[in-house]
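Readers of this paper often ask what the protein records in our data store actually look like. Such a record has a labelled line for the sequence and another for the backbone structure tokens. Nothing more is needed to write down the fold, since each code stands for a local backbone conformation. The record that follows is passed on verbatim for readers who wish to inspect the format.
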Amino acid sequence: MDPIYLDYNGTTPVDPAVVEAMLPYLREHFGNPSSQSVFGRRARAGLEQARQQVADLIGAQPDEIYFTSGATEANNWVVLGLHTHTVTSTIEHPSILKACARLGDKVQLVGVDSHGILDPESLCERSMKLLSVMHSNNEIGTIQNLPALGEMARRAGALFHSDAAQSLGKVDVSVASLGVDLLTIAGHKLYAPKGIGALYVRRGVNLPAYIVGAGQERGARSGTENVAYAVALGAACALAQGRWQQDGARMADLRDQLQARLQQDLGDRVRLNGHPQQRLPNTLSVNFVGVTGAELLGQCPHLAASTGPACHDGVVRLSHVLAALGLEPEIGRGAVRLTLGRHTTANEIEQTAAMLVAAYQGLATGPGLQR
């Protein structure tokens, strides 16, 4: 059988329309966008069109968009560039948590509930100059109440940043309605290539330059711009703007079908991670009780998915996200993340369910499924 890809939260394939948009900037429009020659002006025009396309998707102005090498750089830029008293959650991406670790005692980590939700009231009376909370979690799909969190940041006189790498193209991401001052974007989660991203910086926010040099990106982020990849990100944003609602609805239907099929065949031996409603439409994170996620996927060589726990020296350790939910290790070790995308079909969902059920039934032993 053909392999089935259900790891879209890991990375997405580059959409053919995105490839077509970027090719001219790898071939004929190869000039340096800082050059005043005709070659440079053509490259600059492509770069600025892409900036507009990114801005349009999130309801921003083009001069609020800065191109980066990806979401990790954007997140590092915010945390280390501001280098101030920061509050963040325990389930953030490592590019936030590890950057925050460099701030020492300027950081406060705030826990989440068993669904991965950060309670805005938990921020009351906290001293902060920056609040950084991801819009949606890459592992369990839980979506945070950013407007309420942003209100708490404003009460504290703090800037509000969100990593929206996983959200863009799946749910509505409007900087105005979310109430953010800074927003992180990743190209390779949006059917653009790896190695390109962007940071939205609201007008009036003073974010110090993180990479210095010849002063590209209006002096905020030096280094000759990756024009072809920026054009690709712009094209991906334009494509998403016209279809994210229908894509999201279709993926949610397929995700729910997959979850229903697994629970129909395996009952309470399959347990959901994350919020049952307040989650990304494409994300299904479940625990298969009595086995490990790695064992299960090892029996499904035609399925590309990911696990929550990691195995080191024969010991299964939960990811920091699952641990933050308070998940019992004997349950969480069976975590598998199945993430759908634009190209996922109903037939693939049916095949995936059948593969996982068969693999589980082959691995599980004993009346209590104890290994």
Observations:
- The chain has a mean pLDDT of 95.
- The CA atoms of residues 212 and 222 lie 5 Å apart.
- The longest strand covers residues 283-288.
- The domain at 243-363 is CATH 3.90.1150.10 (Aspartate Aminotransferase, domain 1).
